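Posted in: Structural Biology > Protein-Ligand Complexes

Title: Requesting predicted complex, uridine-5'-diphosphate in pocket

I'd be grateful if someone could produce the 3D structure tokens for the following input. Sequence and ligand are given below.
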Amino acid sequence: MPTLNANDRLEGERGFDYLIVGAGFAGSVLAERLAAGLGKRVLLIDRRPHIGGNAYDHHDEAGVLIHRYGPHIFHTNAQRIVDYLSRFTEWRPYEHRVLAVVDGQQVPIPINRTTLNALYGLALSSDEEAEQYLASRAERVETIRTSEDVVINQVGQELYEKFFRGYTRKQWGLDPSQLDKSVTSRIPTRTNTDDRYFTDSFQQIPLHGYTRMFERMLDHPNITLLLDTDYREVRHRVEHEHLIYCGPIDEYFDFRFGKLPYRSLRFEHKSLDQERFQAVGTVNYPDEAVPYTRISEYKHITGQQHPTTSVTYEYPSAEGDPYYPIPRPENAALYKRYQQLADATPGVTFLGRLGTYKYYNMDQVVGQALALYQRIEEAQRQPVVPPPTAPDDSLVSQAR
Ligand code: FAD
Ligand code: UDP
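-- Reply #1 --
Done. Output follows.
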């Protein structure tokens, strides 16, 4: 993998088949496939000084492996995505567990039978009893539209306020009633005592970290990597047949229709001179009076043995790098306008969480990139059909 510096002159370079903007999951998977699968010459750029996008991990000064952009837990039900990534990494089994601080106690979230028993001094001993208890608290909502509706319908007002309202207001700067139902629907309600955050069939972490996995993925002579470089700096300097853009779609079009809202976070990383800080990988703080949403301790996730430990506090923020597209109808409508513009713009394809404005997990982004590759590959086999120039909905549904 030849690596260029931002100051290297590109003018003398041979042209590339593909210029890919963004070396996160979306851009890196596609770069690997195009280079190794089709023999394409790819220039992969990122404005950050590292590969991996938001999944980037590295050793901090104390020697603990941390995730620079908050805890990343890999989980999926898609075997083909596991098979693909397994070409570049071995895995370490890890099932994420999360506790929420509510009424001075640390209780499991997603809400399960243990949560109910602990909070209310109950002795519910079966799924049926817990189901009945929840049914007695739930307030039926006719049409479930918002993130508030989902939770109230399942557990009622009181549990909604304890676990969801404050956390969501902090995380998104919006009330749950202003967010699509898809946001809080990510968190189930359980009547059993399963306290895992996810129930996917595959829950494992890259054994030597995400960055190492990306390094192996990009280790190909046809891939040239250029870090610390914004697309704007090279767009007129690099000859390329096709552009794959994994940055924010509104930025690509110079915010022509206005800014697409993205939510940001400030990460406070701390190294602590103690072996353990908390009982589980992540502890959530739904109380609105606490300025952060959650604290994560990496050694639970990575299994690293070390005399010190490192944790990250997440402070939601309106300013800063775009981390989360904000799922609500007006934003979807604005994105649609950009998507139509993208469809009408030849030579560029948008991909990934920022490029397609979708609240995707890592596995979904890998699926989206593999689906796009499949379409490119098929188009190559039938030369009369031009390669796709814009994402279509079938790619997104295939990624699921
Ligand atoms: P990104 O990783 O954002 O990569 C896009 C890259 O493009 C960036 O590196 C950016 O610097 C670069 N870029 C943008 N614009 C330009 C430009 N103009 N020029 C050059 N480069 C540019 N998913 C899970 O599955 N499990 C989790 O536990 C999980 N936890 C998360 C926790 C947090 C706090 C966050 C924010 C996300 C989490 N995710 C998790 C989601 C996961 O990070 C994303 O699904 C995944 O990283 C998206 O990959 P991507 O390539 O689409 O985007
Ligand atoms: N959520 C909440 N309380 C919690 C956990 C989650 O209100 O204790 C809501 C909140 O709106 C959050 C969403 O559910 O943004 C999705 O949570 P998840 O942990 O999946 O968020 P992510 O890891 O993507 O930040």
